[in-house]
Amino acid sequence: MHTSSDGDTVFVFRTGELKNPFNDKLQYFQETEDSLYTQVDIIGHAAARAVQESIYDAVYSAESIQFEQAYKGVIPAVRDYEGSN
Fold first, then answer.
1. Would you give the DSSP letter of residue 6?
2. Would you give the distance in Å from CA 10 to the centre of its chain?
3. How far, rounded to the nearest angstrom, does the alpha carbon of residue 46 sit from its chain's CA centroid?
4. In sequence order, what DSSP letters do the residues of 13-57 get, joined into one string?
5. CA separation (Å) from 26 to 20, 35, 36, 38?
């Protein structure tokens, strides 16, 4: 689930310490003002994917817990559902 209020936010900014760090992979980019934004976008996308994968890992690693106030007294884990993995 992803909503604007769930707290999963990734901030990316450029310090300018590395000049064209993607030169080997992105040779077709020329050193322009726009290429600097593209590099930040690529790093931001990679960071967002890392957060996404860590959330998936947490969800699939979680175990069910007994909780009296929950429906049927249990908060189920994903692995409790047939065909979940």
1. S
2. 8
3. 8
4. ---S-SSSTTTTT-TT--SSHHHHHHHHHHHHHHHHHHHHHHHHH
5. 9, 10, 12, 10
Place of tokens 């007994």: 66
∠ Cα 28 32 38 (to 5°): 70
Higher pLDDT, 9 or 59: 59
User: Is the full-model pTM beyond 0.70?
Assistant: no
- 46: which 2 tokens? 């990679």
Could you give phi then psi for residue 79, rounded to 5 degrees? -65, -15
Q: For 11-64, write each residue's pLDDT tens digit.
A: 777 777 766 555 565 555 556 666 667 777 777 888 888 888 998 899 899 999
